[in-house]
């Protein structure tokens, strides 16, 4: 790892459309550039119904961030028109065509200048697909899955990266259960977690659950779960995004919580996890006077 920590702004679930919280999104435009991040990752659900106007608004928002730092974006389950090819009966391209028109690659890769980090996007959003089906009707078109081909591809990319580079994996669906929902975002999550551990990632950036989180897979792989910037938060809690800092020894996940009355983001909890080595417990630091929770 290079001597300088790698800092990534991690946002998710903007849901442009009827549920977007515009004051938050406007605040992000001015707040994110001042955090010292070298890139922003948006882990899916830019839209609510995969409509042109929603994608256009999201595209314009990202273009206002890009003069300050590069942006990597991946699709969420709300960003594909799965009904145009349920179960991929007409092929997968139809359901992603509108998203791809505005944002391009479904599985982008970003190498940061100087070899300090590589960010890889993995596809977990397939709509109504055999791999995402469960026995719960609520999961239809909501749950995702992580094919072995995706984790194999990610593992190969990370294997070619410089030894000192931080390895960051972005997927949409939450890989740890939500604190309030208690729901996993992925069907077949146990197998997915084992494959994620084998990718060589230092940290996973995900969303989907609409509640922030920080934890580990298998006591070894750090996970940053970003909240939503829409009105659909869990139990009406304040929205949260994460600032992820990776240094030579640890991954630090700093929550920034939205304060509705002052219309600003305030520092909240920080969680730190060892990058490598034996199973260790996370160190948590409360946000003190700036905690908006």
Layout of helices and strands:
Elements: E1 6-11, H1 22-31, E2 39-42, H2 52-65, E3 71-73, H3 93-103, E4 109-111, E5 117-121, H4 148-160, E6 166-170, H5 189-198, E7 203-206, E8 213-217, E9 221-225, E10 240-246, E11 250-259, E12 264-274, E13 283-285
Parallel strand pairs: 1-2, 2-3, 5-6, 6-7, 7-9
Antiparallel strand pairs: 1-10, 4-5, 8-9, 10-11, 11-12, 12-13
Helix pairs in contact: 2-3, 4-5
Corresponding CATH superfamily: Metallo-dependent phosphatases
The dominant shape is globular
Class inferred from helices and paired strands:
alpha/beta
Taking Cα atoms only, what radius of gyration do you get, to the nearest Å? 18 Å
Number of domains: 1
Strand content: 15-25%
- The topology string of helices and strands comes to EHEHEHEEHEHEEEEEEE
Please provide the count of β strands.
13
CATH topology title: Purple Acid Phosphatase, chain A, domain 2
Distance between the termini: 34 Å
| The CATH C-level class name | Alpha Beta
Please outline the major beta sheet.
7 strands, mixed
What does the model show?
The longest helix has 14 residues. Helix content is 20%, strand content 24%. The radius of gyration is 18 Å and the shape is globular. By secondary structure, the chain is an alpha/beta fold. The chain has a seven-stranded mixed beta sheet with strand order 3-2-1-10-11-12-13. The chain has a single domain, classed as Metallo-dependent phosphatases (Purple Acid Phosphatase, chain A, domain 2).
């Amino acid at each position: 790892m290079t001597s300088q920590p790698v800092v990534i702004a991690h946002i998710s679930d903007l849901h442009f459309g009827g549920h977007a919280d515009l004051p938050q999104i406007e605040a992000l435009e001015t707040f994110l550039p001042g955090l010292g991040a070298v890139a922003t990752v948006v882990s899916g659900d830019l839209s609510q119904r995969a409509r042109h106007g929603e994608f256009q608004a999201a595209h314009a928002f990202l273009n206002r961030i890009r003069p300050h730092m590069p942006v990597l974006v991946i699709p969420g389950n709300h960003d594909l028109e799965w009904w145009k090819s349920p179960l991929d009966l007409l092929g997968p391209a139809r359901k992603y065509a509108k998203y791809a028109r505005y944002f391009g690659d479904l599985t982008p890769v970003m190498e940061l200048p100087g070899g300090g980090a590589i960010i890889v996007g993995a596809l977990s959003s397939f709509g109504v697909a055999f791999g995402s089906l469960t026995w719960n009707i609520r999961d239809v078109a909501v749950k995702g899955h992580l094919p072995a081909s995706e984790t194999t591809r990610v593992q190969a990319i990370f294997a070619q990266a410089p030894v000192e580079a931080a390895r960051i994996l972005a997927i949409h669906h939450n890989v740890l259960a939500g604190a309030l929902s208690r729901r996993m975002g992925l069907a077949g999550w146990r197998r997915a977690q084992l494959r994620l551990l084998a990718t060589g990632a230092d940290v996973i950036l995900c969303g989907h659950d609409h509640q922030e989180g920080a934890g580990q897979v298998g006591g070894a792989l750090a996970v940053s779960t970003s909240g939503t910037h829409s009105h659909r938060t869990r139990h009406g809690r304040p929205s949260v995004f994460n600032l992820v800092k990776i240094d030579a020894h640890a991954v630090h996940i700093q929550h920034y919580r939205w304060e509705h009355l002052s219309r600003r983001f305030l520092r909240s909890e920080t969680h730190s996890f060892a990058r490598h080595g034996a199973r260790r417990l996370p160190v948590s630091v409360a946000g003190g006077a700036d905690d908006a929770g």
